[in-house]
Amino acid sequence: MTTPAERHAPDPGLAVGADRAAGADEIEADIERTREQLVNTVDSLSQRLDVKAQAQRRMQSLGTPRVATIAGAALAAVLVTAGAVLVWRRRRR
Fold first, then answer.
1. Fewest CB atoms within 10 Å of the CB: 1, 50, 69, 80?
2. Please, what's the largest Cα pairwise distance for the chain?
3. CA distance to 32, 41, 42, 67, 68, per residue, from 46 (Å)
4. How far apart (Å, rounded) are the C-alpha atoms in residues 4 and 43?
5. pTM as predicted
6. How far is it, in rounded angstroms, from Cα 25 to Cα 31?
């Protein structure tokens, strides 16, 4: 059991003078590291919650349609239209 005098005794790990300044520097460095970690965490959460930005990134990752694909679709549309016109003309006769 501790006596009342022992409860109020200074911490032997804390020395007077330069050691206290070094301890304060360590605390300040720890605070700065904690702030940086907090900023990174908030940024990460913000990115996860931004649905619009996620959708835009997804669309960009899918890429733009290739020119060949567009040209092929246009050619197919022309052929289908030409075929429909020919069938329509034959039926009119």
1. 1
2. 118
3. 21, 9, 6, 36, 38
4. 48
5. 0.41
6. 10
